[in-house]
């Protein structure tokens, strides 16, 4: 009788354990979208920030502590993009599962070919630069594909029973993202060189421009994180005129007043790009990447109003 | 005999010179995948649509010996002040005289100790020397959502007491905090246990016990410089309960209740209790590209002291409203009061209600520096003097590790 009860209990417990989805928390909405697609119904994903927010400046709201406290896996961008808000949250979260060095902490930057890694000494005279390299790789679906594959390997370790499912869905996703990347890159490569020149607000589009073989002519910020000043804007205007650059591109969370004036003077277009996948509205990463490319393509090909 | 030995040494050296660099080169020259050549890998990557960039680059660590150094940041707070009337500052970091003031030079060091502990140290350098403001270890892996802290730290009474000047919006500390908690804030050697409750919203309970005689910090309400022993009645106890409500994506509300109890210096067995409540309401539209925000912060403290059969009760509060206009500009208003008692043996020169108003404008040249201009109006009616006025111009600069702040 007793064995029967304990066997029943064991079955219930193990069923519950099998049925409970892996709780994944992602710092950024694009990472959340990737995790949701890799994990499918096996994971329950929540994002700590909104795509409309600058990922450098997210408020460390205590409600985020709660999400981190209850997480099985934390997916973060890494290389200091979240340095201004994630460390105190992690300390307050009291969750050894997602501590550095644990299986539950997934740092996406480890799976990406990083760009703009400073090779010599660095100084804040150069602005608010990231000593580990440019952290804005999530705008490139090729990087996202590698991250999805890496995340699947990690989820396979955390939830070994479903290892196969994670790997399959990630390789499917990666294949789709890579062919999407190739398709879009091919479309952009057919454009004549002058149309492929763009000016950007913050040096956050390097991976995106690299993917679509666009050329960055200037940044509106004189140094990363330093607000544009009139002198620098004048210099950018001159550069845009001299090079025939017709597009100023920036994510939606950067200020637009100076940009609007500049595009008017330069007879150029302002391409405001989504800051990340609209994860809250159920958007998939692939659709986000397509939207990015479409917004840029429309800007570089359409005539100036 | 000398010659062969030298020859041997020279030959060993020569051998080392030849072998060691080659060994290094061989390692550096290793292709990303041992069995596939770099060219093949690139061709494969290209056909798959993977970025055909070189193998992942990681920033080289210049000196492996320093790889485990703690994160260090150094923050300077200096100001140029002008006062009409005596400043009557209550905070240890407040500008205290007309002219140039070194308010604080803070050094913060932090690192994980091991998988179980994290350590923080906050050292303050002043004209007179170095002061250990805080140094404590925090547990990282306790079960049941518990966390322990041990060392010297600021007590979780109210909101501002646990923070340092670089996270204050005004150049001086609210009057009531200086009056009740001391110029350096309520702090001491002790330990804390905190518990994140399983409620569906953020609710955290902290309980702290520390020495009540930890120096000047506690002398205004508690024992202060006098020696406290191991007697439980000589210790300072603090409890705090913090709750956070994310009312809407753009609205945040943090509400705290806290209390502190311990012996005071009037007589053996004389006790003091402080009760506090604090509220922080922030409106920050997430979609605003200027990172604009408006935050209201209020703290109210009530103090009760029992000495020789009489109960002395005083209280004080401040409310501040800060508007972050854009990443470069911020403006703030603060209004405050602190009451006093006519026959207060422990605080004889504060016999009435003092009120103070301040307004500040801040310019942030970057994320790591700010220039603040603050004007103040100060009334101490019991002193039979005209109201005091002040104008403060403060510069703050931060170098070192990228800091992060709790909400």
Task: Write structural notes for this entry.
The complex is a heterodimer of chains A (305) and B (407). By secondary structure, chain A is of the alpha/beta class. Helix content of chain A is 45%, strand content 12%. Chain A is built from ten helices and eight strands. In chain A, the strands form two sheets. Chain A has a four-stranded parallel sheet with strand order 2-1-3-4, covered by helices on one side. Chain A has a four-stranded parallel sheet with strand order 6-5-7-8, sandwiched between helices. In chain A, helix 7 links the parallel strand 5 and strand 6 (215-219). The longest helix of chain A is centred in the middle third of the chain and has 27 residues, at 163-189. The radius of gyration of chain A is 22 Å and the shape is globular. Mean pLDDT of chain A is 92; it is low at 10-17. Chain B has 407 residues and is mainly beta. Helix content of chain B is 11%, strand content 48%. Chain B contains three helices and 16 strands. Chain B has helices at 2-28, 38-48, 175-181; strands at 71-84, 99-112, 117-126, 129-139, 146-154, 187-196, 202-211, 235-248, 251-263, 271-283, 293-307, 310-324, 329-338, 354-366, 369-379, 388-400. Chain B is globular and about 90 Å long. At the A-B interface, helix 3, helix 4, helix 5 and helix 6 of A face strand 8 of B.
